[in-house]
Design brief:
Blueprint (H helix, E strand, L loop, with lengths): L3 E3 L7 H7 L15 E4 L4 E4 L2 E3 L2 E3 L4 E5 L3 E3 L3 E3 L3 E4 L2 E4 L4 E3 L5 E4 L2 E4 L10 E3 L5 E4 L2 E4 L11 E5 L8 E4 L2 E2 L4 E3 L2 E3 L3
Parallel strand pairs: 3-6, 4-7, 5-8, 6-9, 7-10, 8-11, 9-12, 10-13, 11-14, 12-15, 13-16, 14-17, 15-18, 16-19, 17-20, 18-21
Antiparallel strand pairs: 1-2, 2-3
């Protein structure tokens, strides 16, 4: 198994560690509520459990995976090639943005939006020159039915890109919305 360490500033004082909830008043290590772990050997981030504000993946070949229920409530920005696996994205704005020239892969992720979110905002945007694949993902609203109000795009691929630059494969789309300029295979 890959050796992991928690992402923390090396120069944190004992008081700061106590304030962060990492150690208690007896200087014992406490389990954090929302730990993120990062591999020393490669750019691998493991989300253990909890809610995270958002993240920017800016190093090539990044792997971000959730081993338990982990949720991003802020935008996930993929600026270099990355694989994001098993993560839940939840919010009212764009949930993920893909930029840069290296492809991004979202595998077994769930994207959840408020049903009445602005109709001009897609769940995921793919910028000009970028590429992305969504495999086994679920797109839905926060409502029990999963349906979004009005009409909009789930995955929006910039018009300058070819439709083959974005693939949506074997995903579940409960929103009632379509994808824009994307190749869709086996979506339910």
């Amino acid at each position: 198994m890959t050796e992991l360490r928690q992402i923390r500033d090396k120069n944190m004082s004992l008081t700061e560690l106590r304030n962060e909830g990492i150690v208690n008043s007896y200087h014992r290590l406490d389990v954090q509520q929302n730990p993120i772990k990062y591999s020393k050997k490669r750019d691998e981030t493991v989300l253990i459990e909890g809610e995270f504000k958002g993240h920017t993946a800016d190093k090539p070949h990044t792997l971000i995976r959730a081993v338990e229920v982990a949720e991003f409530s802020g935008v996930m920005k993929v600026e270099a090639g990355a694989t994001i696996q098993g993560v839940t994205f939840k919010g009212d704005a764009v949930l993920a943005e893909v930029t840069g020239t290296m492809p991004a892969m979202f595998r077994d992720c769930t994207f959840i939006r408020n049903a009445s979110t602005s109709l001009t905002t897609a769940f995921v945007t793919v910028a000009s020159g970028a590429k992305a694949t969504f495999s086994g993902c679920r797109f839905r609203s926060a409502e029990d039915t999963g349906v979004m109000q009005g009409a909009g795009n789930v995955v929006y691929n910039d018009a300058a890109n070819a439709a083959t630059d974005v693939s949506v494969v074997a995903c579940v789309n409960e929103t009632g919305w379509s994808h824009s300029n994307a190749t869709v295979l086996g979506e339910v």
